[in-house]
Amino acid sequence: MKNVLIDGYNLGLEKGTGVATYARNLSLEVGRLGHRTSVLYGLGAPPARDPLLREIAFFDSETSTRRSRLRDLAGIVSPLAARAAAVPVTGAVVTRQFGARLPHYDTLYNAPDLFRRAHGRFHAWGRVTPVRLPARVDLAHWTYPLPLRVPGAANLYTLHDLVPLRLPYTTLDNKRRYLALLREIARRADHIVTVSECSRRDIIDLTGIAPDRVTNTYQSVAIPARLIETPEAQVAREVEGALGAGYRDYFLFWGSIEPKKNIGRMVEAYLASGIETPLVIIGARAWRAEGELRLLDALAPGKPARGDVRRGRIIQVPYVPFGLLVSLIRGAKAALFPSLYEGFGLPVLEAMLLGTPVLCADTSSLPEVAGQAALAVDPYDSAAIGAGLRALDADAGLRADLARRGREQAALFSPERYRARLSALYQGFL
């Protein structure tokens, strides 16, 4: 049995991200491969010698170190490695509240403000921060481009995509710093991991790293059987209660509302299509959301004119818990994902696994994931998106065929296949 460390950089987010889903699934599969799984967090919980206080502070969202410029400067200037302490999970703190967020683990570690300070040190000095742990680690698998490493272990880094470089106008990253970090990771890493052949090509082309140092493992998605097997009648009740919409009688998008998700063109295409099937958008407004939703915002003031049903046809929900989201995906007429660029595109896989027809973009990694099991459209062409919507809305046979092919395509990305690819990768370092 080997000890594999995974970072918790995205795992602390309540609403989760695609990278958080990746990290949780990775932790689960590492455990199934028979390795001891450790997860390293960088929460603001202050260090404490008392194990009970460490446990309490780790799960206390209100606990954080008092941030000061002097402390931050000391952390950035210090040449010392960051030190992590084990977080005891004894049952003293009731943790069921965090069940949906916690990964699989054998040991939890925390190094206060680790990720923020590591980024500060890299931006100031161009240095990668070493991390010292109480126990030996054989392999550290960083699930995001982080300026961190564990001395004495094999350090692998997952780069999901290079969207900040390929579509720089869709992110707020400092592109100069981002590229410098990627090049430093490419120089130091024992290996680079990614999640699609599209991303692999981007990484090789834009960083100059040797092709034999980049491996595509793809991804999988794990949805609890109890949610997949929920009776349709119950799913229909949940849909009606949450949205006021009928079962299999709405289109669904879920994800962050940001430029690369292409919500603006999707809404434009939907409004121009003339169809009356409601469109449901689940996602928090992020950067430039007002631009993406400008049509909706323009229609929002006042009451609809007589006969104007456009506003009533679009339902926006900022967030729903994962269990309800699964029901809403199952209850949708079709899932919409006309994203401009994706490293993988987990929503497409989730919809196919749940038997929901998919309309997605024909760009980046999405053709790899969807294969011939989705209605693919040009994401830059609103008319093409609208034509796809009208076809899905009118043709029950098309929807049934896509649902059948989607389940078959989803099997190519099963947890078992992902585990086999991960095992082959790790064998070279363990």
Structure explained in plain terms:
The chain contains 18 helices and 17 strands. With 430 residues, it is an alpha/beta fold. The strands form three sheets. An eight-stranded mixed β-sheet has the order 4-5-2-1-7-9-10-11, sandwiched between helices. α3 crosses α4 (114-125) and α10 crosses α16. The longest helix is centred in the N-terminal third of the chain and has 15 residues, at 18-32. The model is unreliable at 303-311 (pLDDT under 50).
Topology:
Layout: E1 3-7, H1 18-32, E2 36-41, H2 51-58, H3 69-77, E3 82-83, E4 85-87, E5 107-110, H4 114-125, E6 129-132, E7 139-142, E8 148-149, E9 154-158, H5 163-166, H6 175-188, E10 191-194, H7 197-207, E11 214-216, H8 225-228, H9 232-243, E12 251-254, H10 263-273, E13 279-282, H11 289-292, H12 294-299, E14 314-317, H13 322-330, E15 334-337, H14 346-353, E16 358-361, H15 366-370, E17 375-377, H16 382-394, H17 396-410, H18 415-427
Parallel strand pairs: 1-2, 1-7, 2-5, 3-6, 6-8, 7-9, 9-10, 10-11, 12-13, 12-15, 13-14, 15-16, 16-17
Antiparallel strand pairs: 4-5
